[in-house]
Design goal:
The protein is α/β, with parallel strands linked by helices. It contains nine helices and eight strands. The two termini are 17 Å apart. Bound molecules: adenosine-5'-diphosphate (ADP) (2 copies). One adenosine-5'-diphosphate binds next to helix 2 and helix 3.
Length: 220
């Protein structure tokens, strides 16, 4: 093992559980970067790269982008200098193939540190996703009712336009939940068996969930 142990936090939870919101806050609190595969795909889509064009078809359906492409993308991202102390993983791994690939990537640095599962009921998650608004420039996430910006339609951080993601309408959300239960939910048992899973009550306020997560990350 390398002499430098890193901290890798794997946030688990249904789409809309609050992973992105919490990852951004953890990034501010710990200095570890948020690595969101969804954000990287959306960035590529905005810039019309080949990766973005490929990912779009899958994202519009709410299905997973193929593993080989996704795993290679994460490998590249984790080699960037800002990931030298670890990362907050948001949306990756999302199935068992990705989980085993991720474990191999981080094994030289002490492996996965903790895998918090943010628990939220399906009805609540649908309310959260359909009211979600995202900044077109920096990706900061708001909610029309639960976490509104100071000025409607405008990002508090950089003044960017807030938009509703193409995959945040109810029909696609239902497919994403289906994909989650079929492909991602097995990761709960996978990380539990390794002694890395900790459940967090995601129905609490954003600040309360953040306090619970920070306590977990700090003791790692
Ligand atoms: P995920 O990354 O898991 O899909 P997000 O962080 O994007 O979830 O959150 C989904 C929506 O729910 C966003 O609109 C966000 O503002 C809102 N949200 C996140 N956490 C909470 C919370 N604890 N209470 C109420 N709304 C929340
Ligand atoms: P949410 O925050 O609502 O869970 P994400 O931003 O994480 O949504 O993901 C949006 C879409 O991007 C997914 O529906 C999927 O098409 C694609 N995606 C994101 N992460 C992955 C991944 N690890 N593997 C495959 N596809 C992914």
């Amino acid at each position: 093992m390398s002499d430098r142990k890193r901290t890798y936090v794997v946030l688990l939870g249904v789409p809309g559980a609050g992973k992105g919101t919490q990852a951004k806050l953890l990034e501010q609190a710990t200095g570890l970067p948020q690595v969101s595969t969804g954000d990287i795909f959306r960035y590529n889509l905005k810039n019309q790269t080949a990766l973005g064009v490929l990912a779009k078809g899958y994202m519009d359906q709410g299905s997973l982008v193929p593993d080989d492409v996704t795993i290679r993308m994460v490998e590249d991202r984790l080699q960037m200098p800002d990931c030298a102390k670890g990362a907050i993983m948001d949306g990756f791994p999302r199935n068992l193939v990705q989980a085993t690939a991720f474990e191999q990537m981080v094994a030289p640095y002490g492996g996965v540190s903790v895998a918090p599962l943010i628990n939220v009921e399906d009805d609540e998650t649908i309310r959260r996703i359909t009211g979600r608004r995202t900044c077109r420039t920096c990706g900061t996430v708001y909610h029309l009712i639960f976490n509104p910006p100071l000025v409607e339609g405008v990002c508090d951080k950089d003044g960017g336009e807030l938009y509703q993601r193409d995959d945040d309408y109810e029909a696609t959300v239902r497919n994403r939940l289906f994909v989650y239960y079929k492909q991602t939910a097995p990761l709960v048992g996978y990380f539990y068996a390794k002694g890395l899973l900790t459940e967090v009550d995601g129905s609490k306020s954003i600040d309360a969930v953040q306090a619970d997560l920070l306590a977990l990350v700090k003791c790692k």
